[in-house]
Amino acid sequence: MTGTNTDRAIRTISRCREIAARTEVPGETTRLFLTPSMHNVHSLLRSWMEAAGMTVHVDAIGNLCGFWAGLSADSPRLLIGSHLDTVPNAGAFDGILGVVLGVAIVEELRGKHLPFAIEVIGFSEEEGVRFSKPFLGSLAAIGKVDAETLACTDRDGISVGQAIRNFGLDPVQLPRAVVSNHTFAYLEIHIEQGPVLESENASLGIVEALVGQTRMQLVFTGQANHAGTTPMHLRHDAMAAAAEWIVAVERYASSHDDLVATVGKLEAFPGAGNVIAGKVTASLDVRHADDTVRHAAVLAMTKEAESAATRHRTQVTANTQLDQPAVPLDPALTTILQNAAAQAGFPSRRMTSGAGHDAMILAPVIPSAMLFLRSPGGLSHHPDESVLPHDVEAALVTVMEFLTQLGDDRGKLEDGHA
Ligand code: HGY
Ligand code: MN
Ligand code: MN
């Protein structure tokens, strides 16, 4: 690949925007797990990967994998990747940037083979939108997609297993999606999705740990009735109960340092303006770096839901969909990454990720590191999400230096200190 680092950064950004146009909803970027537009994303990435000399395959969960050999057939393997799915009405860089940059890094090798192989992986599902179960791609990469997961259904009643078959893949082959045991490290490059780096005018962040997260679904059940003829004291109003609870959730989280809690999805049934809601389904997302604090918050918020339900003569059930512990990343690999950034001329700050990432699934089994790029406006999960060419260039140069240092330091890495 000819051109300057700036050219490569600009090409990376334009590729992300090209992929963003592969969507289920014209005019916005919405690409859920194994929906038809994912075929188009695979074709685009495959063309770039194969042009760079990589061998490409799609595994049984729909992860797209591009392989660049090391110096020998049994060379150890560095995994570089992120996810290909998006939230509804997403930006162009969440997840995708880490895969497109992985391809750019192999292109930058210009045919050179390293003491280790590089596998660039685009995970098929991280956001958890279609099946309310996140990280399906990286869970398959560590062999953790079980029969219960395959039986989860989306809002149309299609199971994960059926979605895999509908995409032209075979869930029976899932054991082959487990990453090679030659894999010695995982690197995820991702936008920060928050305001910290921008507030410090910094291009890059070195992630030390990812906060733990709980995702739940609560169902408030009362009695639908006529909005005009039912006196207030005789109602069983599921919406009023949920609304009172949501305010209490926000108040609790605001009074506990570094705790965040979000009710992002709310559905009322029957959902007519002149009918008292008989049922309300609400999501709850709670995150904190300390699992004890997070669990205490979840318990308090669940109790508050029960109190609010009782006050409004309704019932409530709460179902936990995800209880993901906080995950530290590999100290040795993180040190090598930070040294590489410094060597490349980009001072970086260490930080904790408030967002979940595939690295939190891989890190317990594969030494993992994450590199953050500044999010202009601190904006993400929004169509105006962006990155700066200068920061993409910083990431590219840093990771090339990281590869060099990794080659030098791999022995130390295996001993657990760099
Ligand atoms: O929700 C998250 O933390 C991530 O963007 N999936
Ligand atoms: Mn996301
Ligand atoms: Mn992401």
Defining key terms:
418 residues; five-stranded antiparallel β-sheet; 22% strand; binds (2S)-amino(hydroxy)ethanoic acid; binds manganese (II) ion
Class by alpha and beta content: alpha+beta
| N→C terminal distance | 32 Å
- Give the helix proportion (percent range): 25-40%
- Which residue ranges are poorly predicted, with pLDDT under 50 across at least 5 consecutive positions? none
Average pLDDT, rounded to a whole number, is 96
Count of helix runs: 12
> Which of globular, elongated, flat, extended, rod-shaped describes the shape?
globular
The distinct ligands, each listed once, are: (2S)-amino(hydroxy)ethanoic acid, manganese (II) ion
Task: Report strand %.
Answer: 15-25%
Helix-strand topology string: HHEEEHEHHHEHEEEHEEEEHEEHEHEH
Count of distinct strands: 16
* Main beta sheet: 9 strands, mixed
Using the CA coordinates, give the radius of gyration.
23 Å
Topology overview:
Layout: H1 5-20, H2 37-51, E1 55-58, E2 64-68, E3 77-83, H3 96-109, E4 117-123, H4 136-141, H5 147-151, H6 160-166, E5 183-191, H7 196-199, E6 204-210, E7 212-221, E8 225-226, H8 238-254, E9 260-262, E10 266-269, E11 275-276, E12 279-288, H9 291-311, E13 315-324, E14 327-328, H10 331-343, E15 349-353, H11 359-362, E16 368-373, H12 389-415
Parallel strand pairs: 3-4, 3-5, 5-16, 6-15
Antiparallel strand pairs: 1-2, 2-4, 6-14, 6-16, 7-12, 7-13, 8-11, 9-12, 10-12
Helix pairs in contact: 1-3, 1-12, 3-12, 8-9, 10-12
Bound molecules: (2S)-amino(hydroxy)ethanoic acid and manganese (II) ion (2 copies).
